Amino acid sequence: MPGASKVALSSPIAATVDFERDGVQHGFLRLPHSRDDSAWGSVMIPIAVVKNGSGPTALLTGGNHGDEYEGPVALFDLARSLTAEEVRGRVIMLPAMNYPAFRAGRRTSPIDGGNLNRSFPGRPDGTITEKIADYVARTLLPMADLVLDIHSGGKTLDFLPYAAAHVLPDKAQEQHCFAAVEAFSAPYSLRMLEIDARGLLDTTAEEMGKVFLTTELGGGGTARAETVAIARRGVRNVLRHAGILRGEIERRPTRWFDMPSGDCFVFSEEAGLIEACADLGAAVRAGEVIARVYPIGRTGLAPWEYRSRLDGVLVGRHFPGLIQAGDCMAVIGTVLP
Ligand code: CA
User: Fold this and answer.
1) d(CA 201, CA 156)
2) 36 CA from centroid of ligand 1 (Å)
């Protein structure tokens, strides 16, 4: 057939929910995964759809990284409690998007080592992780007007609880994204700079013109009562902001930070034992020591000192007590008026 090779491959994922049907549906994205313990087996990714007539669509995702728990807790809870009557339009919920990673309590997939949020836009004929990314990018994102991807720091990072969006070339789109961040009403809000924006769900959604926001709501491979409450309030606030849920946005004071340059990130150049010299939320000055790294092979050696390159606030930090060369040690946000 002429041109047949140019026809886009269809996704191997089959949804057990009908995205066009009104009402509440709990189902799966079924992704074929042939393996030793199940020859014709599948990965069953939980999905919920709540739809009522026409209106905007929100795509809410958690578990993009499998060791971050505020998103899964808030979205399993929202999926269980949201009724079609209170919705105008549609809410699509993926509480544990990289489901194999989530089940393993890992950032990346135990099947293929895939980091879902470095795999976008994905491939329909790629690895398991790339197939999930491809389905989200080509099937779910086009349906969505607004996308909220809930992250926290996972096992190796910890953050002040913030919602965030990126500086974008399209200033009208950027304004919509920051308005959604404001509506989320986390205690902190960020104009977020990425270390490397390639492969992110964020970038894929933004390039499609979507209103996109994300969060970092804590970390350390667990979730706290405080950060879960922020996530739970935030998802409903964002749905109210989108006009999908009725009612007033439950606004809370938020403190805005900027990330004006790569100087916001401090990376360790040594391996060793880390001594935090500033905690999350601490004001730091340019030149101030924020951490020391002790060599651990022998006694008697001086620690390396790491300094902030900016005046600002410590918004993120390395979580485990030992650090390796190349690890992100600290993230400094500058205070916006
Ligand atoms: Ca993350």
Assistant:
1) 21
2) 30
